[in-house]
Amino acid sequence: MKRIFAQFTKELVQFQRDRLTLGLAFILPFMTLLIFGFAIRLESKNIPFIVQDFNRTNISNSYIERLYATNQFMPTQWSGNDPVRDAIDRDIAYYCCCVINY
Question: β-strands 73-75, 47-53: how paired?
Answer without folding.
Answer: parallel
